[in-house]
Design goal:
The protein has 2 helices and 6 strands. It has 120 residues and is an alpha+beta fold.
Length: 120
């Protein structure tokens, strides 16, 4: 119920997806991240769910995206575009980083929507 307001961007529907294809190593980390978001009272900050598993190259590059192995998630993509200043709160980001994710918002090529498994 905590995420019943979230827009699932792949289908344009409201509500968290019923099935998520995810790497078995990333699953407990993502679960902990989302539980951290709920515990911190930050569920309202998750506005769009923009995907875990998709076979593709990194945007604008020739290397394969970590999404191809279902070890990353994108959230709130509409307001955290590549190479833009991320708009996620520090507390929201910490919910993911404390659970074992790296955040793309700290990279030289900022990717503020992107969280990935820290140790692969």
């Amino acid at each position: 119920q905590a995420f019943s307001h979230v827009r699932f961007s792949a289908l344009g529907t409201i509500g968290f997806p019923k099935k998520i294809f995810i790497n078995k190593d990333f699953r407990p980390v993502l679960e902990k991240s989302l539980l951290n978001v709920i515990a911190a009272g930050l569920a309202h900050e998750l506005k769009t769910w923009d995907g875990v598993f998709i076979t593709r190259h990194k945007r604008g590059l020739s290397s394969v995206s970590i999404h191809s192995w279902a070890n990353a998630v994108d959230v709130n993509a509409f307001e955290n575009q590549l190479n833009q200043t991320p708009k996620l709160s520090a507390a929201f980001v910490q919910c993911f980083t404390n659970a074992g994710c790296d955040w793309g918002g700290t990279w030289q090529r900022k990717d503020g929507m992107h969280f990935q498994l820290s140790t692969i």
